[in-house]
Amino acid sequence: xxxxxxxxxxxxxxxxxxxxxxxxxxxxxxxxxxxxxxxxxxxxxxxxxxxxxxxxxxxxxxxxxxxxxxxxxxxxxxxxxxxxxxxxxxxxxxxxxxxxxxxxxxxxxxxxxxxxxxxxxxxxxxxxxxxxxxxxxxxxxxxxxxxxxxxxxxxxxxxxxxxxxxxxxx
Length: 170
Prior knowledge:
The chain is an alpha+beta fold. The protein is built from 5 helices and 7 strands, in the order βααβββαβαββα.
């Protein structure tokens, strides 16, 4: 299987993104009702970007990441913040190498696409101990527990440095 990441720029791929995430909305581990989940899924189409992970051989969508520049609380004017709204990969494909490849693609694209970005942030369920373990491996990642959610933030430079550790030329 050959997986490829790319930024969605066409309405047809936005349709695939929406269909894919709606089919898997119960697996997103977002502790919200459906209407709120839908707003997180759709906001990257309106205010940000969508990155897709596709099986090139089967032409099948296997994962998606949606993010926005700025935050809704500040009417998306705080462009120094990149907020990940949703990230999902089919469970059968989840692995550390794929996670790192996706993270590397994401940080490289954001760095080129919006020079203002200094911070990456996102929210996750506080009950998802698997994610807590995963993100605790990134030394510079800061986590704050806010009720049933964990708020994570890290500088873009620190996240790029973390990725670079795994992709150094030998």
